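Before the break, one more example. Copy the sequence into your notebook; we will annotate it together after we see the structure.
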Amino acid sequence: MAEAVKEIPQYLEKYYWWAYARPWAAKLFDHQFMVNAILLGNYNRLRDEAIKELGPDFSGRTLQVGCCYGNLTPYLAKRVAKSGGAIDVIDILPMQLKNLGKKIKPKEPVKTSLMDAAALDVPDNTYDRIVIFLLLHEEPQAYRERTLHEALRVLKPGGKLVVIDYAHPVWWHPARFTTIPIYSRLKPYAVEVWKRGLTGVLPEMAGSDWRRESYFGGLFQKLVRVK
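Here is what the structure looks like once it is written out:
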């Protein structure tokens, strides 16, 4: 893990201290049944869709942008190890990296680094594949834009970027009347994503270079780009 101290963005401490920035938060939320419940029973499906999209060959270098609760990283680590590759996981919160370290086996080819997703300390064209899993909806617009640009910058030509996140659900979706109103208070930057989808708040994602697939009545979406 990188030793340098990074400044934690103000929005993280202001809005998400209760979810990510305290040790007790990981103890409370980082359980498979909990994250699956938060995602209305869709965690395993979204995890599997991301991994399937990245392909059967995990040789070379893989980047996971942001730690996330649940078992995405252990699943990725097994496939990376099988292919003889390596995976880097970056996050701006030391506590999140420490928590993730508890889920990784000692000999698995996983490196964690303290790094800002919106300002990756990585050379251009470094990674063969990148996954951003349920991160963009939690970022302010400027951070979303920079996170996307940084991911594309460090992706190799011919490499694949896979984004899994919330989206604009169908009008009759039950989450519109239950989950979304509650989350709107807890996750204010997600509101625009629910209203317009990621392709609405990040217009460059609406281009023909991106392939899109929706899940669970449009509440979740996978966006894929090959550089």
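The two ends are 28 Å apart (CA to CA). The chain has one domain: 10-226. Try to locate both features in your own notes.
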